[in-house]
Amino acid sequence: MTRRVVRTAIQLGVLCMITVLLLIFVDNRYRVLPSSIHNHLPAHHPGLVIVDVTVKTCNSINPISSCRLDPDKWHRIEKDLYLNKSWLSRAYVHVQRKKEEELDDDDRVVLDMKIGRLDPANGEKGEGNERWEARPAGIWLKRSTKPHMGDSQKAVTAVDVLFGADAVEPRPGWEIKDHPLLLDTSAEIQESRISIRRGNPSDVPKPIPRINKDGKFKIMQAADLHLATGIGLCRDPEPAGWNGGKCDADTRTLDFIGKVLDDEKPDLVVLSGDQVNGDTAPDAQSAVFKFAELFIKRKIPYAAIFGNHDDEGSLNRAALMSLIESLPYSLSEPGPATVDGVGNYYVEILARGTSQHSALTLYLLDTHGYSPDEKNFRGYDWLKKNQIDWFKETAQGLKHAHKQYTHVHMDLAFIHIPLPEYRNTNNYIVGSFKEPPTAPGFNSGFKDALVEEGVLLVSCGHDHVNDYCSLDKSPEGAPQLWMCYGGGAGFGGYGGYDGYHRRVRFFEIDMNEARVTTYKRLEYGDTEKRLDEQIIVDAGKVVGGP
Ligand SMILES: *[C@@H]1O[C@H](CO)[C@@H](O)[C@H](O)[C@H]1NC(C)=O
């Protein structure tokens, strides 16, 4: 009986091992695993504990110099510590993981890690017989003296790598180490940081947004943050000579957003795309964590869609979305797989009190990136028919469900790239129109669909120095849809028009009056003021105009 069990176990083990080896081998060659899995392998293995950590450095031009340790024993974290930027060197953190119940007498569980040149024990009073063990790149490990720990919450269960002097770790249970790994990097390569998790991954419940007791709800739209791996590069900072000409892009962007969040205390943030400036984000995860931390720290729910730059770094749209989706306070979703793009979804904001009914529906759609048919339609891509069909079906389904409500219900929408109708210069506009809208050359009819379904306003990003709202009217002259811009918020994105200051837009909703008021807040200058404040919806109807 025992022998049979052992034999089956061995057979199963061998089968597992072959499968894993094959997967790793094939994945290395052809990237068969989806990026979301490929890039996050170290983080998602409940029940595993880390028993060793090391760094393997290799020479990238010598073909026999390998950057991979024995895959039977070691799991490699798929991030080159030189960010793929060094001509000569590559280096990867490797971890040895074991199932807790399979620990044997030789195994020591990692309890803590420190980074530095000196043995951390030098500055420490004797703590039993645990010693710090040295590993490459300045890593020190403190491991258990006994293989069986009893208290698995103390064990390090996952290790990850982040980049940049400004790297932050917003994941619950995780802790980023203060000091960078010691490598012979040049200044242009961002420092790398170790982040560790102890215990089991925590559950991250999704927030349920709801209209406040006073009937109000405030949405902040942060457009085009353009965050990097590391502090990034300032583009067209305004005013040019301010602060002695010194400008740290992401520091300034995050300070601005943090300040305005504290001041305005929005109930929800919409990130309308280009949060990540792909070109300067060789580790997109580090960029994502920077904006996520702002909201998580303040317990503010946020919903993100993508622009044309988010996926130009190390993560594609699907991987970015699965990362953002997994973070606390995130309402972001990839949306149905059968619909083009990643991030076609809606967010319901419930009526005040304990009602399970929705008061506001926010539709968020993916406007993709560059034109798939540059010859006929230059510039940017457009919303596809299946997305518009999905939107109409969803809106009609929800409308049916909302009919039974006794209270007012309103619909709003957010996209990244403006719609062709944003070009209508005959429309009444409030705010600045400083550049021709870079809407797609092909009109797939989303504006008409929004009007048909009774959406009151749509807001986009993408053109950083436009911050106007434009009023679309019916052929009879009745206001039917406001089309707004958020106005660029990030210093890592362009802003090259004289006197243009970074800004964010607010939508203040008052359900008592079924009213929407919008305004912007500036990063520099008259920062206390509500800029271009206007009522755009009243008694549930689109209003405004001369
Ligand atoms: C480096 O290149 C590899 C292979 O293209 C990629 O998987 C990885 O995300 C890149 N960035 C880092 C930080 O390793």
Automatic annotation (TrEMBL):
<dbReference type="GO" id="GO:0004721">
    <property type="term" value="F:phosphoprotein phosphatase activity"/>
</dbReference>
<dbReference type="InterPro" id="IPR004843">
    <property type="entry name" value="Calcineurin-like_PHP"/>
</dbReference>
<keyword id="KW-1133">Transmembrane helix</keyword>
<feature type="transmembrane region" description="Helical">
    <location>
        <begin position="9"/>
        <end position="26"/>
    </location>
</feature>
<feature type="domain" description="Calcineurin-like phosphoesterase">
    <location>
        <begin position="217"/>
        <end position="465"/>
    </location>
</feature>
<keyword id="KW-0472">Membrane</keyword>
<dbReference type="Pfam" id="PF00149">
    <property type="entry name" value="Metallophos"/>
</dbReference>
<protein>
    <submittedName>
        <fullName>Metallo-dependent phosphatase</fullName>
    </submittedName>
</protein>
<dbReference type="GO" id="GO:0005737">
    <property type="term" value="C:cytoplasm"/>
</dbReference>
<dbReference type="InterPro" id="IPR029052">
    <property type="entry name" value="Metallo-depent_PP-like"/>
</dbReference>
<keyword id="KW-0812">Transmembrane</keyword>
